[in-house]
């Protein structure tokens, strides 16, 4: 009998946990979406419209302009103080040579202890998994189609799984906890245990803009008004893990809730990025977002505003930043609060902005100044 451990945000697990999951929880895993292409076409695939079926590459929220734009990949890893990377998609095997190149690059840059795991449907190009392992891949998470969950002996993945294990790679299974599929999931866990896999990861099934129609057709609903998680998915995972804990099962099983992904993994990653990328003028909130003062005008150029602030208002140039990309002057919030009423009289617009410290700088809130 194994102990079922409670983790944060309703996640639970039976030991051992994958090193990849531990790093994810700390926010120290770089998320590399290496392509939006995938041969599997699962009805529950949550990938967004912008990424699904498109050969685009992202290092966390930062889009690479093409395969050779690896400077951003390394920089993003540094910004979050990454101790590893999770290569996902789409399906990384769909672009296996790019995946190999990135594994090698990350290992060369950050050393052999930099833990790299990869998620794949294993449907296409599985003959190249050995090349990826040789390049330094530490863990493969295979995603078998639901039709094989209770019959893995018939799955085309069997050979790739065996081959990966024989070549010294940690192998896991990663699937969504689909409500009412307890028996199939348990059968998959037993098969994984009997075949010496390391872990089974169960993700809470989630609605997204691209899978909502299919999930609705199958009668699934959201679990509550503030969540995109599917009702019953968590209960299914809990029942399976409870049952597995009473069986003779040695492998690790981890249920990862959608609130764990948002509230722990993403939040911690954002906090790390905020700490490493904040300018002197940025305030970091307890959630890891930035608070910035922002000034722009329809009548005066940014260069003119900058000059006025330095020369007339004697603002320390460490506390001002001319952000051409966003077409605005950023200035320390505590400074702007004091001078906003005078700037407004000079035809300038002043705001207090809260935004993510991510490459896309997603805005959370915009408050006009003076208060
Ligand atoms: S294998 Fe994963 S990425 Fe590919 S379609 Fe299925 S859920 Fe989406």
Describe this structure in words.
The chain is α/β, with parallel strands linked by helices and 371 residues long. It has two domains: 5-274, TIM Barrel (Alpha-Beta Barrel), CATH 3.20.20; 278-369. 34% of the residues lie in helices and 22% in strands. It contains eleven helices and 17 strands. Strands 1-2-11-10-9-8-7-6-3-4-5 form an eleven-stranded mixed beta sheet. Strands 12, 13, 14, 15, 16 and 17 form a six-stranded antiparallel beta sheet that branches. Helix 3 packs parallel to helix 4 (129-135) and helix 6 (182-194) packs across helix 8 (233-246). The model has no long low-confidence stretch (mean pLDDT 95). The structure holds iron/sulfur cluster (SF4). Residues 38, 40-42, 45, 47, 89-91, 121, 143 line the site of iron/sulfur cluster.
Topology, element by element:
Elements: E1 5-6, E2 12-14, H1 19-26, E3 29-33, E4 57-59, E5 62-64, H2 70-79, E6 84-88, H3 96-110, E7 115-120, H4 129-135, E8 139-142, H5 157-166, E9 170-177, H6 182-194, E10 199-204, H7 212-217, H8 233-246, E11 252-256, H9 258-277, E12 283-284, E13 290-296, H10 302-312, E14 320-323, E15 328-331, H11 333-345, E16 349-355, E17 363-369
Parallel strand pairs: 3-6, 6-7, 7-8, 8-9, 9-10, 10-11
Antiparallel strand pairs: 1-2, 2-11, 3-4, 4-5, 12-13, 13-15, 13-16, 14-15, 16-17
The structure holds iron/sulfur cluster.
Residues 38, 40-42, 45, 47, 89-91, 121, 143 line the site of iron/sulfur cluster (SF4).
């Amino acid at each position: 009998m194994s102990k079922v451990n409670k983790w944060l945000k309703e996640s639970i697990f039976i030991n051992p946990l994958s090193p990849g999951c531990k790093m994810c929880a700390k926010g120290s895993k770089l998320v590399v979406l290496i392509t939006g292409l995938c041969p599997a076409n699962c009805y529950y695939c949550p990938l967004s419209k912008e990424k699904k079926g498109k050969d685009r590459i992202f290092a966390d929220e930062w889009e690479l302009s093409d395969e050779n734009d690896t400077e951003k990949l390394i920089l993003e890893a540094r910004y979050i103080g990454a101790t590893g990377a999770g290569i996902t998609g789409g399906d990384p095997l769909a672009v296996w040579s790019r995946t190999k190149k990135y594994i090698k690059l990350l290992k060369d840059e950050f050393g052999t202890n930099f833990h790299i795991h990869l998620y794949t449907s294993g449907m296409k190009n599985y003959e190249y998994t050995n090349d990826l392992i040789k390049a330094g891949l530490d863990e493969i998470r295979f995603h078998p189609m639901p039709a094989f969950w209770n019959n893995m002996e018939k799955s085309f993945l069997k050979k790739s799984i065996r081959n990966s294990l024989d070549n010294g790679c940690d192998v896991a299974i990663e699937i969504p906890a689909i409500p009412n599929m307890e028996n199939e999931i348990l059968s998959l866990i037993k098969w994984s245990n009997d075949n010496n896999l390391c872990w089974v990861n169960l993700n809470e099934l989630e609605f997204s803009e691209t899978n909502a129609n299919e999930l609705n057709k199958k009668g699934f609903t959201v679990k509550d008004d503030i969540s995109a998680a599917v009702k019953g998915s968590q209960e299914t995972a809990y029942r399976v893990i409870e049952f597995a804990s009473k069986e003779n099962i040695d492998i690790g099983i981890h249920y990862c809730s959608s609130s764990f992904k948002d509230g722990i993994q993403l939040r911690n990653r954002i906090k790390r990025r905020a700490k490493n990328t904040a300018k002197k003028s940025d305030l970091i909130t307890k959630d890891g977002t930035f608070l910035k003062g922002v000034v722009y005008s329809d009548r005066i150029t940014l260069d003119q505003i900058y000059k006025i602030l330095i020369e007339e208002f004697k603002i320390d140039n460490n506390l001002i930043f001319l952000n051409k990309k966003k077409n605005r002057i950023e200035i320390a919030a505590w400074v702007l609060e004091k001078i906003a009423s005078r700037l407004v009289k000079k035809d300038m617009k002043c705001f207090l902005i809260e935004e993510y410290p991510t490459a896309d700088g997603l805005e959370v809130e915009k408050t006009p100044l003076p208060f």
